[in-house]
Amino acid sequence: RHDGEIYTSTVDYQGDAKILRGTRGSSRRPFVLRVGAKTVTGSVDGQAVAFSLRDVKRIRGIVTVDQLAQR
């Protein structure tokens, strides 16, 4: 849960990358994120996203991403 929305996801691995696939909110908007060594790329609700891991913020042991919360 983040900003009142519930996120459901699975995690897979492709080589050194972590792949997060899931949905957010009651509308179940889809997202796919590829977390690499230094960057995150993918799509959120059909929109392409790309950002540095430096933009990822850990809250109470849960990783959240400021850019995703703003979309």
Notes on the structure:
There is one protein chain. The chain is mainly β and 71 residues long. It is 7% helix and 61% strand. It has one helix at residues 66-70, and strands at residues 7-14, 17-24, 29-35, 39-44, 47-52, 56-59, 62-65. Strands 1-2-3-4-5 form a 5-stranded antiparallel beta sheet, with no helix packed on it. Strand 6 and strand 7 form a beta hairpin. The longest helix is centred in the C-terminal third of the chain and has 5 residues, at 66-70. Residues 67-71 have low confidence and may be disordered.
Helix and strand sequence: EEEEEEEH
Strand order of the largest sheet: 1-2-3-4-5
Distance between the amino and carboxyl termini? 15 Å
Strand content: over 45%
Please summarize the sheet with the most strands. 5 strands, antiparallel
Mean pLDDT: 80
Q: What ranges have pLDDT less than 50 throughout 5 or more consecutive residues?
A: 67-71
Percent range for helical residues? under 10%
Secondary-structure content class: mainly beta
Radius of gyration: 12 Å
Please tell me what the overall shape is. globular
Number of beta-strand segments? 7
- Count of DSSP-assigned helices: 1
Provide the descriptors you would attach to this structure in a database record.
globular; two-stranded antiparallel ribbon; single chain; 1 helix; disordered C terminus; mainly beta
Question: Could you provide a short overview of the structure?
Answer:
With 71 residues, this protein is mainly β.
